[in-house]
What we know:
- The chain is α/β, with parallel strands linked by helices.
- Strands 3-2-1-4-5 form a 5-stranded parallel beta sheet, with helices on both faces.
- It contains 5 helices and 5 strands, in the order βαβααβαβαβ.
- It has a single domain, classed as HUPs (Rossmann fold, 3-Layer(aba) Sandwich).
Amino acid sequence: MLPKIEKILYATGLGPAAPYVFRYALSLARRYDAEIVAVHGMEPLSTFGQSLVELHVSHQQSEEMHRQDRETVRENLRERIRQLCEQENGGERCPVSEIRVLEGQPNQVVLTAAAETGADLIVMGSHRHTSLGEALLGTTTHKVLHTSTLPVLVVRIPEGY
């Protein structure tokens, strides 16, 4: 029996190559009549970094700033996806059903979102690196690829992005 691909988790770091990787998720969504859930993980400040911030603003103000930052990133991601769907989807319905911007280690955010949404496939990008080890794929991609119980499509980002 062939696997069903009904929900694709598109993981993005919001870099300049995000549209390139998104096109793969969009192509697969079209082919399989699947929906896309976009996810972005924002690394939290370290304890030391949080302490430095709270030297200048209260903990409550700091939390509010983080909330506003997450909302700004979510709106930016929503707008970028809307524009990409408009450009690439030829007027068809955009298959993105949900956009998640979560605080946490990006690899954990991707794995958690995949489990919570019932994703069938994870699509994410990777730059080519010249050093060995995790840098071959990038830390987040490497960790997701080797930890996920789901299939992961790693889109090689071309030079120049």
